[in-house]
Write a structure and sequence with these properties.
single chain, alpha+beta, 11 helices, extended
């Protein structure tokens, strides 16, 4: 089905707005044919969608936007429809047991299940706590609760109402508290830069291209006089109330809004280095008191802070130490080393290139902080 849809779309010329309709018609036909052959139509659609989503097809961005809108509309309609099955008259007598079950599920049952399932994996304690907290119960739970209604089980309407109230309690508490809880668990990474705005271009031969918009700040390399290569010159610059041809701009100012053409996603990191905006001042407490280059050695830290190190480890660089003790490094991961913490501030090609030094890495409770995934020793 997936190969067939891709073949047809790439060999038929239609108005762009018709491609999403063609995809839906062919997908429904494939779903019906699969069911007639005693297969799983849902599984067939999933595999076909996975194939199409990773293929170059005509009208790709138009199809993607249409499907995204349609999926949100379907979810809204589904929740509204499921809500019609709830019997409000049962709510007063069921509200207390429903909330009791809901909070037992959130605070006891799910955390126990998550901790047991994650035993083989290298997650920290706070990561496990956060994963336990964010398991929202939604449409799937309500759909399963419809089974007693369909089979006319005794008190099926009460079973559905209890499930409905449990879902509402979960969504109302966990849904609104995810961000504060992530901060409490010390797992919320601050943005070091404001991400650029990207607009996908759906033109013949340019299916992987983007129009990228950056708003420059005072510490942007382009504003500080960094040399801009020809391929990275903006096509337009908006300054104040005026717009200029990018080729005519000799010097960039803070506040300029620049528009660039990126021929592929691979060009984005290079453009970010030239035009990336935003200050890291607000992230300094999170990333340590100051930053040093990862080529500094353990002997350097020993001389400065009196840290005890093992024999033969003095010549190791901080980059090597982080690589030995952390896996899947991300910005914000840290490793406790005596009286200080080493914090990953910058990662290139999977290696830490800048390390933050946290001089007082102790919580109010007196416990040391450790974020990131430890390697086995």
């Amino acid at each position: 089905m997936g190969y067939g849809i891709r073949y047809v779309i790439n060999r038929i010329s239609l108005d762009t707005a018709l491609y999403p309709i063609l995809v839906i018609c062919m997908a429904l036909s494939g779903f019906a044919i699969t069911n007639m052959l005693f297969g799983s139509g849902f599984l067939a659609l999933y595999v076909a969608g996975f194939l199409l989503g990773n293929s170059k097809i005509q009208g790709h961005h138009q199809i993607l936007r249409f499907q995204n809108t349609l999926s949100w509309l379907a979810q809204i309609i589904m929740f509204l429809t499921l809500g019609f099955f709830a019997n409000i008259e049962n709510f007063p007598e069921l509200i207390v047991p429903s909330l009791a079950l809901g909070f037992f599920l959130m605070l006891v049952a799910r955390p126990v299940a998550v901790f047991l399932c994650l035993i083989p994996f290298k997650y920290t304690m706070m990561e496990k706590v956060f994963i336990s907290f964010v398991g929202l119960r939604g449409a799937t739970s309500i759909l399963l609760a419809l089974a007693p209604l369909v089979f006319r089980v005794s008190d099926a309407d009460k079973i559905f109402s209890v499930t409905f109230l449990m879902v509402m309690a979960s969504m109302g508490t966990q849904g609104f508290l995810i961000v504060p809880f992530a901060k409490w668990c010390k797992l919320a990474l601050p943005l070091t830069e404001k991400p650029p705005l990207k607009t996908e271009l759906d033109l013949p031969g340019l299916t992987d291209s983007f129009l990228v918009t950056y708003k420059l700040s005072h510490d942007t390399p382009a504003v500080l006089g960094e040399k801009i290569p020809g391929w990275a010159r903006p096509i337009a610059v908006h300054r104040g109330d005026m717009s200029y041809n990018g080729a005519n701009i000799k010097k960039f100012n803070s506040g300029d809004q620049v528009y660039l053409f990126a021929s592929s996603e691979a060009r984005m990191p290079a453009l970010d280095k030239l035009y990336g905006c935003g200050s890291i001042a607000e992230t300094e407490p999170f990333l340590g008191d100051f930053v040093i280059h990862a080529t500094a050695t353990m002997n350097d830290l020993k001389n400065l802070y009196g840290i005890k190190i093992s024999d033969g480890k003095g010549k190791e660089t901080l980059q090597e130490v982080m690589a030995e003790n952390l896996s899947d490094m991300e910005i914000g991961d840290r490793f406790s080393l005596g009286s200080v913490d080493l914090v990953v501030c910058k990662v290139e090609n999977g290696k830490a290139t800048e390390i933050g030094i946290a001089l007082d890495p102790v919580r109010k409770s007196g416990k040391k902080l450790f974020w990131g995934k430890k390697k086995k020793t």
